[in-house]
Amino acid sequence: MTDQVDSPEELPSTAGKLAEQYPDVWEQYAGLGKACSEAGPIDDETKRLVKLALAVGSQSEGAVHSHVRRGLEEDIDPEALRHVGLLSIPTIGFPKAMAAMSWIDDLAE
């Protein structure tokens, strides 16, 4: 799994502007993400699904899109990505889970 943070050109406008204006901050942020990813024994696909679940739980549409896009690029089965949304129903509630499912399907369909 490439757990690198997107380059400034690939980022949503606000994050991209931050990366361009404060490249040192962006570099440190990217380094933290890489260090966290490499700190434990979880396999790459599971890491991506966990990160998607965290994005779903925090109701961050941008992060959900990012992790779905990356998951698809990493050849994760779209049904596995959708399963994350289904698993969120009893934890975050039906309406929030349905929002997350729609964000997943924005890219997984």
Automatic annotation (TrEMBL):
Record's signal peptide: none
InterPro entries listed in its UniProt record: AhpD-like, CMD-like
Superkingdom per UniProt: Archaea
Example GO molecular function: peroxiredoxin activity
Record-annotated Carboxymuconolactone decarboxylase-like domain positions: 23-105
Name this polypeptide is given: Carboxymuconolactone decarboxylase
Biological source species: Halomicrobium mukohataei (strain ATCC 700874 / DSM 12286 / JCM 9738 / NCIMB 13541)
Taxonomy of the source species: Archaea, Methanobacteriati, Methanobacteriota, Stenosarchaea group, Halobacteria
